[in-house]
Amino acid sequence: MPKPWDSFLHYLPYSTEDERFGMVCTTAGSANILPNTVYPPRITDHPLIFRQVAVGRTLPEFQIVYITKGQGILTVDETSYTVTPGSLFLLLPGIKHRYKPVYEIGWQEYWVGFNGDYFTKLFRDGILSREHIFFKIGLQEYILSYFNRIFDEIRAQQPLYQLRACTQVFSLLGEMLVHERRKEQPGSYQKIVEKAKYLMESNIYGAINLSNISEQIGTSTSRLHEIFKNYTSMTPYQYYIQIKINKAESLLEQDISVKEVAYRLGFEDQSYFSRLFKKKTGIAPSEWKKYIYA
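Predicted structure:
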């Protein structure tokens, strides 16, 4: 007779050294909850603060939960979400929530808990927010791979496994934020941004002329600025400058003078180029080659 659950479950210790990295993994696991199973099963295997998941709890940490099979419901404050395969949700510290599978259906769940100054800063700065906690990300093998790598690190518990597990947590957060950003942007935005990037790359040795780029795309400079900033978090000018600086690094590694590099990249004022290069890299262009080959 099959068990009503098939699970991997760990609550994790962490050291002062782990905390200094600003990120720690607190718990991780997976469970296959069969139909007609009271949730959560094996309730006494969980610390008291985690047991009230089905009726309402408030955690002092973050958690990510991914559902790959079955159906259920998530309620955060007074807002409810229907959970189906491919649903991924973020639980935030200090915010009351509850979730559980439909009793007659069950579900397959994967979760990871995490905390630390780094994640707290993301929350405080609004990068992680109450407005963006539920994602219909779909059944994705790469999402499962992040959880499986976390589980592998926990099983092995090699030196600095906490840090290695948290890099996978960070990747999960990145996937969530990227998914939300793409959802908010019309498909036409991607085409505009890609064309603008292509034109900038093609004209990397020319002077910066965003009006000309906007005209070739068929939009206004202000509209290009708005779309590009919303899509990439950079203005077109910032992106253009960055690719020029990247190209300057490559040229300076060759036997090309600072003056010649500035001229090739469309900077009429060598002094301005030198100041900009140092601001972006922390190294004066005249010292770049020596720095690279030191």
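Summary: The chain has a mean pLDDT of 89.
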